[in-house]
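User: Here's a chain of 406 residues. Predict its fold as tokens.
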Amino acid sequence: MIQTPEPASGTEPREDAEFRTEVREWLAENLNGQFRELRGLGGPGREHEAFEERLEWDRALAAAGLTCLGWPKEWGGRDATLRQQVIFHEEYAKADAPARVSHLGEELLGPTVLAFGTEEQKQRFLPGIRNVTELWCQGYSEPGAGSDLAAVTTSAQLEGDEWVINGQKVWTSLAHLSDWCFVVARTEKGSTRHHGLSYLLVPMKQPGVEVRPIIQLTGTAEFNEVFFENARTAADLVVGQPGDGWKVAMGTLTFERGISTVGQQIRYARELADLETVAKENGAIDNPVIADRLDKAWVGLRVLRAHVLRTLESGHDGASVDARTAAGQASVTKLLWANWHRDLGELAMDVLGAPGLIADGEGDDLNAWQRMFLFTRADTIYGGSNEVQRNIISERVLGLPREARP
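Assistant: Prediction complete.
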């Protein structure tokens, strides 16, 4: 049912067609041999799968010049166009290549340093991200500041030539495997909300950092709590100026909801197509309600794709996009994919019926559909909850009255 549209023959510009062929042929050749068994591994709820092997895979991509495509050539990128970056993510997802372990560095921190960092910070950190020799995690959420980033209380005080950091972060993906963390901390005593925040680059492997895994509904633990107790980082490892943390953090969130979501949609399309196959095999497709929900899921996926491509093009066509519009676009994208994927998990359980209640995976483990159903409960929470995204749209974009706050 689900097909990713290919450009009509002869309609794709020659440079794009050549790039598509390069990526497709490299993936076909290299997803064999030592990497053959990695197809389809990793991703949300499954980050524990073949982590070391997927790390080597990412480094193979780097050696082939297939990481950080949109970065300037001077920093190891290819100056790839928006369309070429979309092509890469399309072909990568179609090949069922494994989930990347370097996403947070390549797609979030790297572009942030390029946009806001100093020359010294670029020289220090971009090569390690590009070559996948240093892994990153994101220190945003806290127990009292989940989706409300402006409520963070983790503090950092400048003592001599170092920042001293104290506080707790939560839901920190892959913190247990990361070398560095980009941390939003309060660096001005007495400041509140968006003011007095700074964006710090903090080494994870030091005595003042403790990582505790959080066991999820799926039984896996890719999220973590991170405790900072007099942890330290160099004074010059603040991105932007001290106090500019909110602006820099919002820039990172914009990158987070960018081009990589195109590949995400193709993975979603594969999940939907596989679910339709299950429905045909067990007869659930004969239920008109189930059939209608499958059709609506297909329509929703097309809407998501159209929105993302339109949003990406609006930022690459030479026209400036103001911060308010960018925030609204990013929030709409998050709402669309998070709700769509959560609904697909619920639909999967209804397609499976009673057998979906039985753990029939290896060793009584969850099967893929059960894992997706349970993990997608978090999709509408992490990365900014539905409620917060709707507040952003209503208050910052539509100009509606602010929600009452304590």
